[in-house]
Structure prediction request, 226 residues.
Amino acid sequence: GTVTCHASATCVTQDDDFSCTCNAGFLDANPASAGTDCQGCPPGMFCHGNDALPQPCTTPHVGEWCPAGSSSDNPSVCPEGMFCSGGSSPAFPCTVPEGFYCPSGWDGTKIETRRSESTFPWESGMECDPGHYCAGGSAPRLPCTAAEGYYCPGNFVPMASSWEEGLAGRRCPPAMHCAGRTSAPEEIPARCDLVHACGNITGPGKTCSARQSTFWSYNKPPASFA
Prediction:
């Protein structure tokens, strides 16, 4: 008779007959009709294909896992926003607070950047980098979209917790220049202007009398960044 192989199976011809075998990374869900119902290998397991049973992964360390559809025991890096405890354990979502995130391959070993209130790496995560916004939970780290005159500090938590406000950043500090987006604030250097006075002219911290020349300095940002 005629047998239709599954899309994830290979047709094997032998003499005048043929058979179907599930490809590597898949398990045969209906061995009685081989190769007609191939299902992806479940997370934490690997499948050689054909009619072989799934095998538990043993080589992944913390921060690694065997994702669904694995065909060998070679681990993959745990995805961002997830925590992987290694071995045959699946990845599960992080539950970090706002201002923190779980980077890919997060193993919880960078204690100095973790949230001190928690000892669990999936609840602590890493502090969000400057120029980015992290909404917490299992959300990814996103680049700041702040306009000129604004910036996103590290571990930034906006007053009204929302993605829009978080990505918009915080107003630039006084005497600093913020180019926007992922840029960090830059100090505006003190500027000296030569004043030629006829009469009394005042500047920041200086008074210039008639026929006197002097330098005066100030450190005031442009009005748009005040």
Observations:
- Residues 191-226 have pLDDT under 50 and may be disordered.
